[in-house]
Amino acid sequence: PGGREIMGINGVIITLHPAEHVRLDRDRIVELGMRLGPVAAEDLISRTMEDLAVMLARVGRAYMARDLPELARTAGDIRQHAAHIGMTKLSRVAADAEDLSSLKDSPSLAAVVDRLSRLGERSLMAVWDLQEHSV
Fold it and tell me: From residue 60, how far is each of 39, 110, 125 by CA, in Å?
């Protein structure tokens, strides 16, 4: 379940099960808490996560519509928002999507947009879990 089938060598169908390991900069999250206070930091992180969920959906729609300028803008927004709350890996993959949107490399862009979606979902879940455990 959840795998992707591709045609391998000699016409053999191969099922891939991509997995993403989330990387959170816990120091960044702690720093936000110290600078803003725990309630304000939690509010900022919650609002940013809501924004990221909307942006991730927007990237998917832009990709399906082949609206590369919108994809680049939204990936740039994801990059900035993710970095602000310590989602370093998500920020890096969003930067890759932003860069690739200006190239004529459809297979690479497709792979990175898929990875961004997968990693975005897992990153949001990881931060929600972190918030639940810190309360």
Answer: 32, 10, 18
pLDDT at 105: 82
Give Dmax (Cα) for the chain: 59
Residue 98: exposed, middle, or buried by beta-carbon count in 10 A (0-12, 13-18, 19+)? buried
Alpha-carbon gap, residue 42 to 100, rounded angstroms: 33
Q: Is the model's pLDDT at 79 over the cut of 80?
A: yes
User: pTM score, two decimals?
Assistant: 0.82
Residue 25 dihedral angles phi and psi, to the nearest 5°: -90, 90
CA 33 remoteness from chain centre: 22
Residue 3: DSSP 8-state: -
What tokens were used for 41? 């930091």
